[in-house]
Design a protein that fits this description.
- The complex is a heterodimer of chains A (about 110) and B (about 110).
- Chain A is built from no helices and 12 strands.
- By secondary structure, chain A is mainly beta.
- Chain A is globular.
- Chain B is mainly β and about 110 residues long.
- Chain B is built from no helices and 11 strands.
- In chain B, the strands form 2 sheets. In chain B, strands 2, 4, 5, 6, 9, 10 and 11 form a 7-stranded mixed beta sheet that branches.
- Classes of the chains: A mainly beta (about 110), B mainly beta (about 110).
- Chains A and B meet through strand 5, strand 6 and strand 11 of A and strand 5, strand 9 and strand 10 of B.
Chain lengths: ~110, ~110
């Protein structure tokens, strides 16, 4: 069955620390990959996306993600987090020619302490 | 740009009644809209894909007679929860597709069925 796995459900780190959130998927065909963020009390916002080309994708707010096809992974990174990065982060995958239907991972709650 | 709104933001209803939730793309035309359900501390589960002017496509396990979806225009999709029961209480989120495979999400509607 197709699935999206996020390795950590809950991450706590201090400001200025580096963040890396893992995401693996199990789809056989060509995929599009996304990271969404949900700040407390707000709706889902697109952080970044990968469709094709350079596997290192830069998004908003200093986030980047790297697509490693051989590992079926799309990990999210930020070199130095801020308190305002406290949020829930969702990895999502869509299969090409699926009308854009997204399969979401379970989400990772990130708490950044001052 | 790419703003999606939902109305109402929260609704409380009695068991057996029907509730309608609206999803609007405010500054763009969306040929495809999606409806998700999010349980507490869990990820988003796709319920259905809605294309303007055609019948919605429901995911496996979603009762189409219970969750009626209408996509009458390029900026409006509605979800009607018919004969609601307490187990239908949840957070319902819509999204609209602006460009291929990129979805923009609404703020969600909290439904509580008493």
């Amino acid at each position: 069955a197709q699935s999206v796995s996020q390795h950590n459900h809950h991450v706590i780190l201090s400001e200025a620390a580096s963040l890396e959130l893992g995401c693996n998927y199990s789809y056989g065909g060509t995929v599009n990959l996304f990271w969404y963020v949900q700040y407390p009390g707000q709706h889902l916002q697109l952080l970044l996306k990968y469709f094709s080309g350079d596997p290192l994708v830069k998004g908003i707010k200093g986030f980047e993600a790297e697509f490693i096809k051989s590992k079926f992974s799309f990990n999210l990174r930020k070199p130095s987090v801020q308190w305002s990065d406290t949020a829930e982060y969702f990895c999502a995958v869509s299969v090409t020619d699926s009308w854009g239907k997204l399969q979401f991972g379970a989400g990772t709650q990130v708490v950044v302490t001052p | 740009g790419a703003v999606v709104s939902q109305h109402p933001s929260r609704v409380i209803c009695k068991s057996g009644t029907s509730v309608k939730i609206e999803c609007r793309s405010l500054d763009f035309q969306a040929t495809t809209m999606f409806w998700y359900r999010q349980f507490p501390k869990q990820s988003l589960m796709l319920m259905a894909t809605s294309n303007e002017g055609s019948k919605a496509t429901y995911e496996q396990g979603v009762e189409k007679d219970k969750f009626l979806i209408n996509h009458a225009s390029l900026t409006l999709s509605t979800l009607t929860v018919t004969s609601a029961h307490p187990e239908d209480s949840s957070f319902y989120i819509c999204s609209a597709s602006l460009e291929m495979d990129t979805q923009y999400f609404g703020p969600g509607t909290r439904l509580t069925v008493l």
